[in-house]
Amino acid sequence: MALIVQKFGGSSVADAKKLFNVAGRVTDAYKEGNSVVVVVSAQGDTTDDLIAKAHEINESPSKREMDVLLSTGEQISISLLAMAIEKMGFPVVSLTGWQAGMNTDSNYGSARIKTIDTERLKRELDSRRIVIVAGFQGINKYDDITTLGRGGSDTTAVALAAALGADVCEIYTDVDGIYTADPRIVKNARKLDDISYDEMLELASLGANVLHNRSVELALKYNVKLEVKSSFERIPGTIVKEVGKVEKMLVRGVTRDNNVARISLVNIEDTPGKAFKIFSLLAKKNINVDVILQSIGRGNTKDITFTVEEGSLQAAIDVLQENLSSIGATDVKYTKDISKVSVVGAGMASNPGVATLMFEALYDANINIHMISTSEIKISVLIDQKDAENAVRAIHDKFKLA
Ligand code: ADP
Ligand code: ASP
Ligand code: MG
Fold first, then answer.
1. From the CA of 116, how far away is ligand 3's center (Å)?
2. Of 198, 219, 235, 384, whose CB is crowded by the most CB atoms within 10 A?
3. Does any ligand 2 atom lie closer than 6 A to the CB of residue 152?
4. What stretch of H or E contains 134?
């Protein structure tokens, strides 16, 4: 008898038929004698629809009220799934984030889980109920509802698995595992049997939305056994595990992230302290900066270019415009029409040929590179967004990942 956490994403619970499919998988695990905790996301496009509804009323609603609204999507799913399971004759209870003891910080819209008070959960499990928990939501110290950021139900599931000491955390979705690239973009992408936490963390942080990056962070930290598998087909998925236990591939996957904006400050005086000034202004506004490039410059000026998430673009532009004269730059330029394309693989640390091969693929496809960044196990390039899908396919082909 095991303790299993199962998470079902939005497309897996989109309608009544799919809810009964999920109820079948949950009750099968329960019938085998396991304790089962189920995390669900909002049905289908509900979260997007709620965001659109909010914007009909107010283009920039407060983040607190957004979280009150968005958390309702998951609340619909938990109750409907519980009703399906009731109808099948099994003992079940649905819990919202706060009922499940999910305590977060107050960063509305992308809150982090701080602690989980498992008392209620354990009580329900002890009385042999199937427990359904709303994903993506929690409660802060003011008793306000928070949400964990898009895709955050994965993180709810892994956090619960860690807190309860579950034997496994199964992430059920609309693909049957983790692939060498998004199978929607690369038709001949290959399913992986396993992948290391580090590689998956890079892929997830670099745009592979099959897992929320914080869920992988938590799985790594608390050593949660994580499996990504299909909600619809009963076949093995992909297991995320420790690096020593997976085959070291030069390149494990290719991914792209369109949620990137590029900002350039031009004609900055070439004197010490400018980078410090710019990035401390951004840090004070809690804006994360990713790739940074400083040009050699002309005369006694230079340019500094960097990337931020699209959602932070406006705030970044505002603070830089306000401080333009003290920064000593003449202009702020920016674009959203940019993507980051990355290759990830634990084996590349000791192999200098990877970057060359990646650049060759882009050259063959006639794609221009704007910026480059590397780390031990990944290489990223910034390119025009219109080229991103072609780039992923070209690189996937070049590394013969199919
Ligand atoms: P859910 O609603 O179940 O959380 P998501 O849409 O968040 O599902 O994640 C699943 C999607 O992730 C897939 O449909 C697929 O298009 C996308 N995806 C991106 N990169 C990958 C990858 N490397 N392997 C598998 N799926 C990927
Ligand atoms: N419903 C939320 C979203 O669409 C959370 C999730 O699906 O994981 O982002
Ligand atoms: Mg998801």
1. 21
2. 219
3. yes
4. strand 130-134
What CATH number should be reported for the domain holding residue 168? 3.40.1160.10
Instruction: Please work out whether the CB of residue 97 comes within 6 Å of at least one atom of ligand 2.
Output: no
Phi and psi at residue 138, to the nearest 5°? -155, -165
In a domain, 134, yes or no: yes
Please give the number of the atom of ligand 2 that sits closest to the Cα of 152. Answer: 8
Q: What is the pTM of this model?
A: 0.94
Cβ–Cβ under 8 Å, residues 246 and 305: no
188 is a domain residue? no
Residue 153 burial (10 A CB sphere; 0-12, 13-18, 19+)? buried
Identify whether the C-beta of residue 155 lies closer than 8 Å to the C-beta of residue 229: no
Domains of the chain: total:
1
Taking 90 as the threshold, does the pLDDT of residue 1 lie above it? no
Pocket of ligand 1 (CB under 6 A): 9-12, 41, 151, 173-175, 178-179, 181-184, 208-210, 253
Q: Which two tokens stand for residue 16?
A: 């009544």
Query: Are 8 and 111 within 8 A, CB to CB?
Result: no
Domain contains 73: yes
